[in-house]
């Protein structure tokens, strides 16, 4: 994992190796919710889905998430009133947009997500890429995660970025691989068992 602190921006990166084939991991990633690792994900709606002539599947989805942990952190630090004057921290559900692209021929799965709620003042962008492991392309998969956090509200923007980096990416993003492992161990295993019975 690495962190890069730029002017009015934080860039976050992490990688993870799954001991499963690319096809297994991508199937789990595309069917990750609902998931006990992410109880804060309240809704997911497919806006559009299409398959191009070259077989690439593109999907656009909207998500509704609980971000109460961020609000509690701001309140505990004594900054609730200052931040609430800039954005409505009493909003219960934050919404985000997600675009994915699956290329089965190239064995590539790309995901790009961005917040909709508070997007005028805070930018949360995440990029995930799943590819076969170069040393074992049939049995292992590499996940590359990166994120960009930006809040230009001087002089408190840096504090917002730090809180979001700690809560959203150091805590929540670390659950991503575990959530996929849960799907593989439960849903995909159950589907396989049902098909064989």
UniProtKB/TrEMBL annotation:
<dbReference type="InterPro" id="IPR037365">
    <property type="entry name" value="Slowmo/Ups"/>
</dbReference>
<dbReference type="Pfam" id="PF04707">
    <property type="entry name" value="PRELI"/>
</dbReference>
<feature type="domain" description="PRELI/MSF1">
    <location>
        <begin position="9"/>
        <end position="192"/>
    </location>
</feature>
<dbReference type="GO" id="GO:0005758">
    <property type="term" value="C:mitochondrial intermembrane space"/>
</dbReference>
<dbReference type="InterPro" id="IPR006797">
    <property type="entry name" value="PRELI/MSF1_dom"/>
</dbReference>
<protein>
    <recommendedName>
        <fullName>PRELI/MSF1 domain-containing protein</fullName>
    </recommendedName>
</protein>
């Amino acid at each position: 994992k690495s962190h890069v602190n730029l002017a009015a921006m934080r860039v976050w990166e992490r990688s993870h190796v799954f001991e499963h084939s690319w096809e297994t991991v991508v199937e789990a990633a595309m069917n990750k919710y609902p998931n006990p690792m992410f109880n804060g994900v309240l809704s997911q709606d497919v806006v559009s889905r299409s398959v191009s002539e070259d077989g690439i599947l593109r999907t656009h989805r909207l998500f509704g998430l609980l971000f109460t942990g961020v609000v509690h952190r701001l309140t505990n630090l004594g900054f609730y009133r200052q931040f609430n004057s800039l954005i409505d921290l009493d909003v219960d559900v934050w919404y985000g947009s997600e675009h994915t692209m699956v290329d089965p021929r190239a064995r590539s799965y790309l995901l790009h997500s961005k917040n909709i709620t508070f997007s005028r003042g805070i930018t949360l962008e995440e990029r995930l890429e799943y590819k076969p492991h170069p040393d074992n392309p049939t049995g292992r998969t590499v996940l590359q995660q990166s994120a960009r956090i930006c809040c230009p509200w001087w002089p408190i923007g840096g504090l917002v970025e730090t809180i979001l980096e700690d809560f959203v990416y150091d805590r929540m993003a670390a659950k991503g691989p575990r959530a996929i492992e849960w799907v593989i161990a439960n849903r995909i295993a159950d589907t396989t068992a049902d098909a064989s019975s």
